[in-house]
Specification:
By secondary structure, the protein is of the alpha/beta class. Helices cover 33% and strands 15% of the residues. The strands form three sheets. A ten-stranded mixed beta sheet has the order 7-6-5-4-3-2-1-8-9-10. Strands 11-12 form a two-stranded antiparallel ribbon. Strands 13-14 form a two-stranded antiparallel sheet. Strand 2, helix 3 and strand 3 form a beta-alpha-beta unit. The chain is globular. The N terminus and C terminus are likely disordered.
């Protein structure tokens, strides 16, 4: 089936990763900062967007980037900023991406995203747009630095759909927005939103300056059950809540949130430089658009081809190898270390100056809570004030006031648990990860072949058999009900009509 512009939609999402994609480190998705110019003044902007970046690429250089991405086999290019549409040639770039056979999408704050701009983009081949909404109107307008920016974002969603452009909403999770998530959910339902991605605000750029915006790691124990609740409610009402790459990991909601209930779906490590590429407006290439430029820039398109940078730059290929030596702190001895490898590189590096130890982890927060502990992050050094910069934070472990006086839950600590199964093969992260299955007694992932769940102590094979038996019974009951309803014919007998 075609979209409103007559272009055939892909049979499956372009970002879907196949086995060959992962094993071959195939570039699938490029996220491209077209300009650093921005008409919002966001208090949590990691790139400190506002003014045009020095030496931004020319139109011809941008069209050359499109050709190179196509030659590398990229399937989707997402345009970001700043605000991408503040470049006068942005529609020409959209058209070039679409004409090359790649899906062109946009992420935006939607301030002054006029009907004319939307119509031009739709005609050029823009197929999807994610609009950032970070709270109810007072909070969103405060964070975005523009009164009326919430209403502008909501209005843009309707105008985009009128032009046949698929829409989604993205929300940065700050400490202040957590109590508003249920109300936001209702707002999005009323607005017709069908996809909602949430992502933690990271201590980068202006968010490092305004560090009071950051939620604390121990709040993962509050956030994750709430997201699971909203996910379930959304499925029933046609709204899919999806976690971003820095939300998780491996608690009892992992399969529900990351795989919509599919047991085999779970976090599988950082995909920066494995299947994802970031491009800055001056041609700088990174493995992920959010990573700090100083440490993770692999080169510039003005000096080398994207193919050469993708193939050989160590700053991009870091996640393609086993990262065990990078692990430290809690993450080094975690039950899931061989699979997770410290979660989101952007989050941990922005906090602590290096990857491999990520306190924003649901499993970690819940395990510490069992021990009567919790973690906070405290800023020790300010950020220098440059684009994609970060300060330096310290992790403080302290008694959890909510569990004071309670006995620690039964079960071995993460440090005491062995990790069965082979580690990833050296030099090929993600290709031979240990296999995980769900313990059906607690909905947490365990390594295949585990007899007793290290999280709840249940007999894993027995709980799986009980689950399969209950599922078979439910399917049988549903089948009988369907047959019974079918036997009534297309209309119910008159005698079954309720009386007033």
């Amino acid at each position: 089936m075609g979209d409103a512009g007559g272009r055939a939609r892909p049979a499956r999402p372009n970002r879907y990763l196949s086995g060959p994609d992962v094993r071959g480190h195939q570039l699938v998705h490029a996220v491209w900062e077209l300009t650093l110019a921005c008409n919002l003044k966001c208090r949590h902007c990691g790139s400190r967007a506002g003014s045009v970046r020095p030496e931004e690429m020319t139109t011809q250089e941008c069209l050359g980037v499109v050709r190179q991405l196509h030659e590398l086999g990229a399937r989707e290019v997402t345009l970001i900023g700043g605000e991408a549409y503040l470049r006068k040639d942005w529609v020409e770039i959209v058209r070039s991406i679409s004409d090359a056979g790649m899906e062109c999408t946009l992420q935006t704050g939607a301030w002054q995203l006029t009907g004319t701009r939307i119509a031009q983009a739709a005609d050029a081949g823009l197929v999807a747009c994610g609009v950032s909404i970070d709270g109810l109107a007072p909070l969103h307008d405060h964070l975005r630095g523009r009164p009326g920016s919430f209403d502008a974002a909501i209005d843009a969603l309707g105008r985009l759909r009128e032009h046949g452009i698929r829409t989604s909403v993205n929300t940065q999770i700050t400490a202040a927005v957590i109590p508003q998530l249920r109300d936001l959910f209702r707002e999005f339902l009323a607005t017709g939103v069908r996809n909602w991605q949430v992502q933690l605000t990271v201590a980068m750029g202006r968010a490092a300056d305004n560090h009071d915006l950051l939620m604390q790691p121990y709040q993962m124990n509050e956030l994750m059950p709430l997201l699971a609740e909203l996910h379930a409610a959304g499925v029933a009402k046609g709204l899919l809540l999806q976690p971003g790459n820095n939300i998780g990991y491996f608690g009892p909601y992992e399969a529900q949130l990351r795989g919509s209930g599919t047991a085999s779906m779970h976090w599988a490590g950082c995909f920066a430089g494995r299947n994802v590429l970031g491009i800055e407006a001056d041609g700088t290439i990174k493995g992920c658009p959010s990573l700090p430029t100083v440490t993770y820039a692999g080169g510039n398109v003005r000096d080398s081809s994207i193919a050469e940078i993708w193939a050989s730059a160590s700053q991009l290929s870091f996640a393609r190898k086993s990262r065990g030596k990078e692990m430290w702190g809690f993450c080094a001895s975690c039950y899931y270390a061989d699979v997770c490898e410290g979660g989101c590189t952007w989050t941990s590096h922005s906090l602590l100056g290096r990857p491999g130890n990520n306190p924003y982890c649901h499993y970690r927060a819940s395990e510490l809570k069992k021990q009567g502990k919790r973690e906070r992050v405290v800023r020790r050094l300010p950020a220098p004030g440059t684009s994609f910069d970060h300060g330096r934070f310290e992790i403080v472990v302290e008694p959890d006031p909510d569990t004071a006086g309670e006995h620690r839950a039964a079960g071995a600590s993460p440090q005491e648990r062995s990790r069965p199964g082979p580690p990833p093969a050296p030099g090929d992260a993600g290709s031979h990860l240990p296999s995980l299955v769900l313990c059906r007694a607690c909905d947490c992932h365990v390594f295949a072949g585990t007899d007793f769940c290290p999280h709840c102590g249940a007999d894993v094979p027995a709980s799986q058999r009980e689950y399969e038996s209950a599922l078979a019974d439910a399917r049988h009951a549903a089948s009988r009900l369907a047959r019974a309803i079918g036997s009534l014919g297309p209309e119910l007998p008159a005698t079954t009509t309720p009386r007033a």
